[in-house]
Amino acid sequence: xxxxxxxxxxxxxxxxxxxxxxxxxxxxxxxxxxxxxxxxxxxxxxxxxxxxxxxxxxxxxxxxxxxxxxxxxxxxxxxxxxxxxxxxxxxxxxxxxxxxxxxxxxxxxxxxxxxxxxxxxxxxxxxxxxxxxxxxxxxxxxxxxxxxxxxxxxxxxxxxxxxxxxxxxxxxxxxxxxxxxxxxxxxxxxxxxxxxxxxxxxxxxxxxxxxxxxxxxxxxxxxxxxx
Length: 227
Ligand code: CA
Fold this sequence. Notes:
Elements: E1 10-13, H1 23-36, H2 43-49, H3 54-66, H4 72-87, H5 98-107, E2 111-115, H6 121-130, E3 140-141, H7 154-163, E4 170-174, H8 177-185, E5 189-193, H9 200-204, E6 210-212, H10 215-223
Parallel strand pairs: 1-2, 1-4, 2-3, 4-5, 5-6
Helix pairs in contact: 1-4, 3-4, 5-10
């Protein structure tokens, strides 16, 4: 049986690389910020670490590049610098197909939530504007709402709690390996949408139930899921 939304009650969307085509900006900001602090981070590193909180990403790269963890002060300083660079860039566009997908999920009568590792306030506020009528702050889990970010299951478990459903009644839409790992660890069927440069095999290794390549493709798939 191909995977469908039968028996599902809620769809939890990741934000960066799913609702917004924001990863190219994040990538440039991370690479430049790390360089500013004397550490090398490649674009590939950015995509492999996508979904983790900024502080966890700083810590991981610091361990690799300097052989030591960053202090809490350094984590804050480096992430703030990166966030500042990101904010100075042109606003990321809504991912093509994302609005249609959100509209279709809503029309299917399913709950809509956003679960992101992001702490970029401009994007978090942007979601409420760009997806007005569908997503509100109370139904978003961000890096401000959980202690442990992706790839721990915590953000998605918090999403389930807000939706008031069991893992079996939910579906996650994710584009990043660590995001898929987080959702799968929470016991949720996860649709991977590979919108970036990573090999499909890297995403498939995390155990999604389905792999697509764009939000437009997701939107088309939703047409086949009319309950
Ligand atoms: Ca993402």
